[in-house]
Amino acid sequence: MGKKKGNKAAASSDDFLQTLEDFTSKENWDKFFTLRGNDDSFEWYAEWPQLRDSLLPLLQDSSSSSSSSSSSSGSLQILVPGCGNSRLSEHLYDAGFRDITNVDFSKVVISDMLRRNIRTRPELRWRVMDITKMQLADESFDMVLDKGALDALMEPEVGTKLGNQYLSEAKRVLKPGGKFICLTLAESHVLALLFSRFRFGWKMNVHSIAQKRSNLKTFMVVAEKENSVLLHEITSAFDLLSLGHNDSQGSGMREALESENQIRRDCNNGSDLLYSHEDLKLGIKGDLAKLIGGRRIKFTLGGQGSNFSYRAVLLDAQKQTEPFVYHCGVFLVPKTRAHEWLFCSEEGQWQVVESSQAARLIMVFLDSSHSGATMEDIQNDLSPMVTQLAPRNDDEEARIPYMMASDGIKKRDTVHEVTSSLTGKVVVEDVVYESAPSNLEDLSPSSDLAFRRLVFKRTEGLIQSEALLVEDGEILEQSQKEKTKNVSQSKRKGNTKQIQEPSRPLMRVSHDYLASSYHTGIISGFTLVSSYLKKAESCGTMVKTVVIGLGAGLLPMFLHGCLPFFSIEAVELDPVMLNVGKDYFGFTHNDRLKVHIADGIKFIRDITNSEASSEETSNGGSNGDSTAHNTLGGTCPDILIIDVDSADSSGGLTCPASDFIEETFLLSVKRALPQHGLFVVNLVSRSQSVKDMVVSRMKKVFDHLFGLQLEEEDDVNVVLFGLCSESVISESDIPESAVILEGLLKCQRLETKQSIIDATKKLKCWK
User: Fold this and answer.
1) Residue 154 pairs with which residues in a beta bridge?
2) pTM for this one?
3) Which InterPro entries has this protein been placed in (predicted)?
């Protein structure tokens, strides 16, 4: 089992296996193996002649050190998950390893392999089984031999859920001293999960398998299970310097090893780490059955048997002498409030512990991946894991209460609902928060501040657009004149009775305030090209900016108002969004702010193609009137911003849609941008492996990459900035460049400008 896009050439005839969603489908695998037949084995990665010299010594070493009754190779109990119709098990059997269990969820391939080997290799076992939930006893194998199974479960668009479940199973069935051997193409998101799941109590070593007739390397990662909780650095059986810088696979492995080993060194030197639930059960942070006053542990929950993954903090009350109402409690924090000081800071969290009256509080942070679940679903999913984390208690009937912070909204009014064939149900709502943003506390001390929000029901946990509502002075003045006129007319008619109507101020969306922190982050990145922007403004040159994804139109409107030398093109696939923006968010377009109802991918590729063809044909025959679908008059944008959500975030990628981070599209972007150009991506994902994959791809395409993490305690949202120029400012130059940007911004609200400049301090160079 296993598949990578670089290996598809070898299986070009199997066009029906186009995506990894297919590769996780039992029906598609059954079809695949039916078409190939039982005698046509298929090796996705290295074949036996290349594997033999590296693999056999590991197996023989395991046989000699095995705790089994004899030291013969035949006594070594080997599990091959996702075996497919590879001949690997047959070669091992012929080499003397007879106790081999092969599992795959395809009945077709298991039947074929059984028929193929029943006479010649009768001791081989073949079982139909899902490798993410295997019906096998704990600690029953000396070795788990994975040839591409993890890779097949780890397509970035699908996320890490299946990979996590599978690795939990592989660790569970291994005996102490057993080895997990993973043959992999070593993509960054695979290594990120693999290395992080085998930290405490495992020794890891990496080998490189020599390949023939292939540009792809196969790496062999070996993790040995120890009876300890030590954290070892990962070693390699080859010289890391031998992995060339021009070799993307090799450089990716080198970077992953260096990064992971730095994490392990820091942890061994006392730095904190985001632990897993499995790590805690090993006793990494002490005996969880005991309460230790002031203990605070950040960790992740989820994996085998769980429907979701969670970020959590375990807190043992600082004063354990207090009388507690609960021995353990769970506090759920909704995504809309996770960034608040009370929940994201250590000091605030201790305040929550004190008010909860629990000796131990497990604070669980919800995110967009939980948006479709009810609270009952969440509690049922968490319950078995929380029980394992509760301290010892003499009262067996003691319950573990679930508490939850409100969503932080004091008042909510639905303004408009519409269903789009492309986006689904779209909601416009006005909300008043329980506490105002800190930079607006002095704006309206006598009344509550209201915000208008755009929400897609498909991703309710994600606010697509948000704007501050302010009194519309112009409309209010016209309304007062009308009232005065009516009163005067009534008096002339002798009607002196006046009815005092309640005062209801007319509101409008403010386009000079950024309510969304990621919009602030996007604009702060203009610091990276501020010298060019200053030059363009001085020369009277318009800076061509393309925004893919209109939303409610707030970002284009802000750019239009605060950067008057910008010429902006917004591209939106769904015409419903343009109407929503116009009708409910005050969006308007003119000669300097245009909208195209078009596919963003095609839009950029058309720019690239038009630039290439314009050099060949310049007959001057075009008329002066541009239509609604012209692409920048055939000229390249100076700044390109991707701000679109994903229709399906189940794979861990909430924003942007996966097509916008494919390498082919990124290359089109680079061709479309000039040397001074800036490419901006708003990346929203809870999965570190997904983010690592996106960053890796952008590093590969762009000369320089900068990143901005919006909230230190909430690692979901990152803004990435790709630059095409070989020369770029360093981090030390950012403060000076930020001053230039500050001078260019024509913001009416000083707090908005200050927020943008403050955000520039978080810009970090990643390449």
Assistant:
1) none
2) 0.56
3) Lys/N-term_MeTrsfase_sf, Methyltransf_11, SAM-dependent_MTases_sf
